[in-house]
Amino acid sequence: MMYYQFTVPWIIRRVRDVIPTIAMLFVMAGLASAQWVKVPLPGTPRTPDGKPNLTAPAPKTPDGKPDLSGIWTTNSGKYLDNLAGEGAEVPLQPWAAAIYKERHDTQGRDKPQVRCLPHGAPDAMLVPGYPFKIVQTPGETIILEEEFNQYRQILTDGRALPVDPNPAWFGYSIGKWEGDTFVVQTTGFNDGSWLDNGGHPHTDALHLTERFRRRNFGNLELEVTINDAKAYTKPWKSTTIPFVLLPDTELIEHLCENEKDAPHLLSK
Questions:
Q1: 109-121: pLDDT as tens digits
Q2: Among 59, 141, 164, 178, who pairs with 154 as Cys (CB 3.0-4.6 Å)?
Q3: What is the domain partition of the chain in residue ranges?
């Protein structure tokens, strides 16, 4: 399964040690320096040797809620492959089961990213090598995706979900706190995205519930509930998805342009 294209951000963060030429290494080093790939960030707790202390307590906002702000990533592609978790049974409607089987059997050759179309929610956060930044403010929480320079707005000003909105790739999101858990409700999706690279489908009836919990400074957890009566016989939950903080770094611009992968994808 192809998770992502091999781009400059991915190479800088993941495989700098296997770049085949010295010239390329110098190019990468210049880009990294210019785009703040490694920079000490203020407010980061540190151990006596100056390294970020990822096990320090989670930071708090002035009103005492956990602050989810930071740059986060997943270290495994298994959540992108299958949102439900390995071996989990998903209650697919018959038509959705047929689509899922076709996508699985063809190794996801028609997934939207092949055409430079975006991942949706939540799988845009699940692509290894492409982190996302959470920016938490009193009235909204923003998720900035490195891949494709995408963003989500989660409004926390007390408004309700919109009625009959214009369908969108990431839908329309509102959030509230339940204790130390940030609960996000999202509706208003179009049906163009997949729930994961494995091919779980959804329709415009999708109601997504995401529950974020920051366990400490360096660890964030997400649990997702899928409610889409057109595609599934009952609501179902994802496995608990862990994210780790990327300290002392920033996002790198990434655009999907001059896409050349599609002609090389093969089905079984």
A1: 889 988 888 889 9
A2: 141
A3: 1-268
